[in-house]
Write a structure and sequence with these properties.
The protein contains three helices and two strands; from the N terminus they run αββαα. With 84 residues, it is of the alpha+beta class. It has a domain of 33 residues. The protein has a two-stranded antiparallel sheet.
Amino acid sequence: MAKATQESTVTSKGQVTIPVAMRRALGLVDGGPVEFTLGDGIVTLRSMRKPSLGDLLAGFDPAKHRHTPEERAWDDAPQGKESL
């Protein structure tokens, strides 16, 4: 992911608004869990939301995973022990 920088202001309650573009890029939703990490004076924020099945399969292209005729021949081969 390309590095992006945007500014925000801390409110009197210690709240910060995360810019819309960053929320979208991270897949953040209202009420969703996030994790803050502090190291060397830098705060890192990441989404703790677990991806849905749709998220995981979004880039899957079944056409790229079709078997060749040679591979299908193995599918039709007898399974298990054979007696000689």
